[in-house]
Amino acid sequence: MLYSDQYNFMKTDWNLVIENAKNKAQQRELELNYLFSDEEIDEENMKKQAIFIRDLILSVIKETVSKKNTSEFSKSWWNSSLTNQRKRMAQKKRQWQKHQIAENFESYQKERNEYFSAIKTAKSKCWNNFLENAQDKEIFKAFQYTKNKRVERLPILEYKNDLNEEVKAVTFDEKCKAFMSVLFKKPPQSEEINISESYIEDSKWNWQDLSYDELEDTIFTSAVNKAAGPDGISFLIIQKLYSVLKEPLFKLYKKLLKNEYHSKC
User: What is the pTM of this model?
Assistant: First the structure.
Protein backbone atom coordinates (compact mmCIF):
# COMPACT_ATOMS: atom_id res chain seq x y z
CA MET A 1 0.00 0.00 0.00
CA LEU A 2 1.33 3.47 -0.95
CA TYR A 3 1.12 6.23 1.64
CA SER A 4 2.07 9.78 0.71
CA ASP A 5 4.25 10.26 3.78
CA GLN A 6 6.49 7.35 2.73
CA TYR A 7 7.80 9.28 -0.27
CA ASN A 8 10.06 12.31 -0.37
CA PHE A 9 8.09 14.65 -2.63
CA MET A 10 10.26 17.60 -1.56
CA LYS A 11 13.22 16.19 -3.49
CA THR A 12 11.24 14.64 -6.36
CA ASP A 13 12.17 15.43 -9.96
CA TRP A 14 8.62 15.93 -11.27
CA ASN A 15 9.82 16.30 -14.87
CA LEU A 16 11.19 12.77 -14.63
CA VAL A 17 7.92 11.55 -13.08
CA ILE A 18 5.85 13.11 -15.86
CA GLU A 19 8.16 11.66 -18.53
CA ASN A 20 7.85 8.22 -16.97
CA ALA A 21 4.05 8.57 -16.87
CA LYS A 22 3.99 9.50 -20.58
CA ASN A 23 6.11 6.46 -21.46
CA LYS A 24 3.87 4.14 -19.46
CA ALA A 25 0.74 5.64 -21.02
CA GLN A 26 2.23 5.10 -24.50
CA GLN A 27 3.19 1.52 -23.66
CA ARG A 28 -0.39 0.82 -22.57
CA GLU A 29 -1.98 3.01 -25.24
CA LEU A 30 -3.97 0.17 -26.82
CA GLU A 31 -5.36 -0.90 -23.47
CA LEU A 32 -6.11 2.72 -22.55
CA ASN A 33 -7.91 3.46 -25.83
CA TYR A 34 -9.90 0.24 -25.66
CA LEU A 35 -10.92 0.74 -22.04
CA PHE A 36 -11.93 4.40 -22.32
CA SER A 37 -13.53 4.16 -25.76
CA ASP A 38 -16.22 1.94 -24.30
CA GLU A 39 -19.35 4.03 -23.78
CA GLU A 40 -20.95 1.53 -21.43
CA ILE A 41 -21.88 3.08 -18.11
CA ASP A 42 -22.25 0.01 -15.93
CA GLU A 43 -20.47 -0.07 -12.58
CA GLU A 44 -18.05 -2.82 -13.64
CA ASN A 45 -16.77 -0.74 -16.56
CA MET A 46 -16.28 2.38 -14.42
CA LYS A 47 -14.50 0.31 -11.79
CA LYS A 48 -12.06 -1.05 -14.40
CA GLN A 49 -11.29 2.49 -15.60
CA ALA A 50 -10.63 3.70 -12.04
CA ILE A 51 -8.36 0.73 -11.33
CA PHE A 52 -6.40 1.36 -14.55
CA ILE A 53 -5.70 4.99 -13.61
CA ARG A 54 -4.85 4.07 -10.02
CA ASP A 55 -2.41 1.30 -11.00
CA LEU A 56 -0.74 3.51 -13.61
CA ILE A 57 -0.16 6.31 -11.07
CA LEU A 58 1.11 3.94 -8.38
CA SER A 59 3.57 2.24 -10.74
CA VAL A 60 4.97 5.62 -11.84
CA ILE A 61 5.38 6.88 -8.27
CA LYS A 62 7.03 3.67 -7.02
CA GLU A 63 9.58 3.73 -9.85
CA THR A 64 10.56 7.41 -9.88
CA VAL A 65 9.99 8.81 -6.37
CA SER A 66 12.47 7.98 -3.62
CA LYS A 67 11.22 7.00 -0.18
CA LYS A 68 11.82 9.00 2.96
CA ASN A 69 14.37 7.71 5.41
CA THR A 70 12.19 8.50 8.40
CA SER A 71 13.06 7.92 12.03
CA GLU A 72 12.10 9.24 15.45
CA PHE A 73 14.76 11.92 14.96
CA SER A 74 13.39 13.23 11.64
CA LYS A 75 13.03 17.01 11.56
CA SER A 76 11.31 19.15 8.93
CA TRP A 77 13.98 21.87 9.21
CA TRP A 78 16.95 19.52 8.66
CA ASN A 79 18.96 19.78 5.42
CA SER A 80 22.08 18.33 3.80
CA SER A 81 24.18 21.35 4.79
CA LEU A 82 23.57 20.59 8.48
CA THR A 83 24.57 16.97 7.88
CA ASN A 84 27.92 18.08 6.43
CA GLN A 85 28.49 20.53 9.28
CA ARG A 86 27.77 17.83 11.83
CA LYS A 87 30.32 15.56 10.18
CA ARG A 88 32.96 18.30 10.22
CA MET A 89 32.22 19.04 13.87
CA ALA A 90 32.58 15.33 14.75
CA GLN A 91 35.92 15.19 12.89
CA LYS A 92 37.24 18.25 14.76
CA LYS A 93 36.11 16.75 18.05
CA ARG A 94 37.91 13.44 17.39
CA GLN A 95 41.10 15.32 16.45
CA TRP A 96 40.99 17.30 19.70
CA GLN A 97 40.24 14.21 21.84
CA LYS A 98 43.11 12.33 20.20
CA HIS A 99 45.84 14.98 20.51
CA GLN A 100 44.52 17.25 23.31
CA ILE A 101 45.99 20.37 21.68
CA ALA A 102 44.62 23.85 22.38
CA GLU A 103 44.63 24.66 18.66
CA ASN A 104 42.48 21.61 17.91
CA PHE A 105 40.10 22.53 20.72
CA GLU A 106 39.66 26.06 19.33
CA SER A 107 39.02 24.63 15.86
CA TYR A 108 36.43 22.21 17.29
CA GLN A 109 34.79 24.94 19.36
CA LYS A 110 34.50 27.20 16.30
CA GLU A 111 32.97 24.40 14.20
CA ARG A 112 30.56 23.52 17.02
CA ASN A 113 29.36 27.13 17.39
CA GLU A 114 28.81 27.43 13.63
CA TYR A 115 26.89 24.15 13.64
CA PHE A 116 24.46 25.16 16.40
CA SER A 117 24.09 28.62 14.87
CA ALA A 118 23.14 26.99 11.55
CA ILE A 119 20.54 24.88 13.38
CA LYS A 120 18.93 28.00 14.86
CA THR A 121 18.89 29.64 11.42
CA ALA A 122 17.34 26.55 9.81
CA LYS A 123 14.63 26.35 12.49
CA SER A 124 13.83 30.04 12.12
CA LYS A 125 13.69 29.78 8.31
CA CYS A 126 11.43 26.71 8.49
CA TRP A 127 9.05 28.48 10.88
CA ASN A 128 8.94 31.65 8.75
CA ASN A 129 8.25 29.61 5.60
CA PHE A 130 5.42 27.84 7.41
CA LEU A 131 3.85 31.16 8.44
CA GLU A 132 4.26 32.71 4.97
CA ASN A 133 2.73 29.73 3.14
CA ALA A 134 0.05 28.80 5.69
CA GLN A 135 -3.35 28.29 4.08
CA ASP A 136 -6.82 27.36 5.23
CA LYS A 137 -6.66 25.47 8.55
CA GLU A 138 -2.88 25.85 8.81
CA ILE A 139 -3.46 29.48 9.82
CA PHE A 140 -5.29 28.32 12.95
CA LYS A 141 -2.49 25.82 13.59
CA ALA A 142 0.04 28.68 13.56
CA PHE A 143 -2.21 30.63 15.91
CA GLN A 144 -2.39 27.62 18.21
CA TYR A 145 1.42 27.51 18.36
CA THR A 146 1.75 31.20 19.22
CA LYS A 147 -1.31 32.08 21.29
CA ASN A 148 -1.07 32.88 24.96
CA LYS A 149 -1.85 29.82 27.07
CA ARG A 150 -3.24 31.91 29.93
CA VAL A 151 -7.03 31.96 30.12
CA GLU A 152 -8.35 35.40 31.01
CA ARG A 153 -11.58 35.83 32.96
CA LEU A 154 -14.45 37.49 31.17
CA PRO A 155 -15.22 40.98 32.43
CA ILE A 156 -18.66 41.95 33.69
CA LEU A 157 -21.06 42.12 30.75
CA GLU A 158 -23.85 44.64 30.23
CA TYR A 159 -26.72 43.88 27.86
CA LYS A 160 -30.40 44.50 27.27
CA ASN A 161 -32.81 41.69 28.09
CA ASP A 162 -36.08 40.85 26.31
CA LEU A 163 -37.80 43.67 28.20
CA ASN A 164 -35.21 46.16 26.89
CA GLU A 165 -33.76 46.63 30.39
CA GLU A 166 -30.06 47.15 31.14
CA VAL A 167 -28.76 44.06 32.95
CA LYS A 168 -25.30 43.23 34.31
CA ALA A 169 -23.96 39.66 34.08
CA VAL A 170 -21.43 38.86 36.82
CA THR A 171 -21.46 35.10 37.42
CA PHE A 172 -20.65 32.46 34.81
CA ASP A 173 -24.30 31.38 34.47
CA GLU A 174 -25.41 34.98 34.02
CA LYS A 175 -22.78 35.51 31.30
CA CYS A 176 -23.94 32.35 29.51
CA LYS A 177 -27.51 33.65 29.67
CA ALA A 178 -26.33 37.01 28.31
CA PHE A 179 -24.65 35.41 25.30
CA MET A 180 -27.66 33.20 24.58
CA SER A 181 -30.01 36.16 24.88
CA VAL A 182 -27.99 38.51 22.63
CA LEU A 183 -26.65 36.09 20.01
CA PHE A 184 -29.71 33.85 19.67
CA LYS A 185 -32.76 36.08 19.64
CA LYS A 186 -36.19 34.63 19.10
CA PRO A 187 -37.14 34.61 15.39
CA PRO A 188 -40.11 36.73 14.28
CA GLN A 189 -43.46 35.01 14.02
CA SER A 190 -44.92 34.46 10.56
CA GLU A 191 -47.84 32.63 9.04
CA GLU A 192 -47.28 29.05 7.99
CA ILE A 193 -46.92 28.61 4.23
CA ASN A 194 -48.69 25.72 2.54
CA ILE A 195 -46.38 24.38 -0.18
CA SER A 196 -48.18 21.09 -0.75
CA GLU A 197 -50.16 22.51 -3.70
CA SER A 198 -47.21 23.95 -5.65
CA TYR A 199 -44.51 21.39 -4.77
CA ILE A 200 -43.87 18.58 -7.23
CA GLU A 201 -41.52 15.84 -6.11
CA ASP A 202 -38.98 14.74 -8.69
CA SER A 203 -37.00 11.58 -7.94
CA LYS A 204 -34.45 12.21 -10.72
CA TRP A 205 -31.89 15.00 -10.49
CA ASN A 206 -30.58 16.14 -13.85
CA TRP A 207 -26.90 16.87 -13.41
CA GLN A 208 -25.18 19.09 -15.93
CA ASP A 209 -22.34 17.50 -17.87
CA LEU A 210 -18.89 17.96 -16.38
CA SER A 211 -16.58 20.39 -18.17
CA TYR A 212 -12.78 20.38 -18.42
CA ASP A 213 -12.60 23.71 -16.59
CA GLU A 214 -14.64 22.39 -13.66
CA LEU A 215 -12.47 19.29 -13.32
CA GLU A 216 -9.21 21.24 -13.59
CA ASP A 217 -10.39 23.90 -11.12
CA THR A 218 -11.44 21.24 -8.59
CA ILE A 219 -8.13 19.38 -8.81
CA PHE A 220 -5.82 22.40 -8.71
CA THR A 221 -7.66 24.24 -5.92
CA SER A 222 -7.49 21.24 -3.58
CA ALA A 223 -4.87 21.38 -0.82
CA VAL A 224 -1.81 19.29 -1.66
CA ASN A 225 -1.00 18.64 1.99
CA LYS A 226 -4.27 16.86 2.75
CA ALA A 227 -4.07 13.22 3.77
CA ALA A 228 -4.24 10.79 0.87
CA GLY A 229 -7.06 8.28 0.50
CA PRO A 230 -6.83 4.49 1.01
CA ASP A 231 -4.90 4.13 -2.27
CA GLY A 232 -2.30 6.68 -1.07
CA ILE A 233 -2.73 9.00 -4.07
CA SER A 234 -2.77 12.63 -2.89
CA PHE A 235 -3.89 15.75 -4.76
CA LEU A 236 -0.23 16.68 -5.25
CA ILE A 237 0.32 13.55 -7.38
CA ILE A 238 -2.88 14.10 -9.36
CA GLN A 239 -1.97 17.74 -10.03
CA LYS A 240 1.52 16.84 -11.25
CA LEU A 241 0.26 14.04 -13.55
CA TYR A 242 -2.89 15.84 -14.73
CA SER A 243 -1.36 16.83 -18.07
CA VAL A 244 -0.72 13.15 -18.85
CA LEU A 245 -4.03 11.73 -17.57
CA LYS A 246 -6.33 14.62 -18.48
CA GLU A 247 -8.54 12.71 -20.95
CA PRO A 248 -8.93 9.47 -18.96
CA LEU A 249 -9.67 11.42 -15.77
CA PHE A 250 -12.26 13.59 -17.51
CA LYS A 251 -14.07 10.63 -19.10
CA LEU A 252 -14.08 8.72 -15.82
CA TYR A 253 -15.31 11.57 -13.61
CA LYS A 254 -17.96 12.49 -16.16
CA LYS A 255 -19.38 8.97 -15.98
CA LEU A 256 -19.10 8.77 -12.19
CA LEU A 257 -21.00 12.03 -11.66
CA LYS A 258 -23.62 11.29 -14.29
CA ASN A 259 -24.40 7.88 -12.80
CA GLU A 260 -23.94 8.86 -9.14
CA TYR A 261 -21.41 6.09 -8.60
CA HIS A 262 -18.42 6.28 -6.24
CA SER A 263 -15.67 3.80 -6.99
CA LYS A 264 -14.09 2.12 -3.96
CA CYS A 265 -10.61 1.84 -5.46
Answer: 0.51
